[in-house]
Aldehyde/histidinol dehydrogenase (Ephemerocybe angulata), 251 residues
Amino acid sequence: MTTPLSEIDEIHASLATKFLTSLSSSTKPSPSAPYSHLSLPYRQHQLLQLARLVQENADALCHSLWIDEGKPSQEVMMAEIGVVIRPDLDAWTVELSYHPNVPTPLRAIAAGWPVLIKPPEVVSTFWKLLAELVPKYLNPAVCHAALGGVPEVTKILEIKRAHIFYTGNARVARMGSAAAAKHLTPMRLDMGGKSPVIIDDPNLGKEKRRVSAKSVVGRKVNNSGQSPFITVQPSFLRLFAKLSHLSWLGV
């Protein structure tokens, strides 16, 4: 299942038009102006809808990733979908502007921006399911998924956008950056596994050593070890390797 190329322009135009209309509207949220000046209650509602999507479809989401990647449901819940948090949304909401260091569409939705997602085709089962679920929980004016391969990606990159997020390999990142440059579109890259964990203090206390090893091992076993690599002081290497092994054994 792919998104027809002719529909991609229509999807983008719809997202942009509804967003710009909402900026000039003084009315309450409605189908024609759903954002209501990017109101906080509306944005919080969209995040709560995402939480509902995960909670009500956790088994199906886990099963789809098992089909695509052979990933155990325990790992999916821990690292992929089980980290959706609801209770602290109000406490986390403050008027603070900063530059986030994790490129993810969730931040854009939380900020009230419309998002067009092109998921990787290698997890097709998972994204077919998500493409069916997203319209049931989120306002289509907020989030839309376009499915497909190279032709669909090429079409999306031809459209002038406000910002592009990309997570993946360097080859595709170069293609995306070149396309973004034509429109001077800002692009945020997350090149997986490029950020090392640096442990540069060999004099850490016993408890801090144990916690650091446990934390690193806990992340390293996800996604078949794809998580960032580790840099350790030579004098601490043997001990850290031993602590990591013990953490893996649960000791």
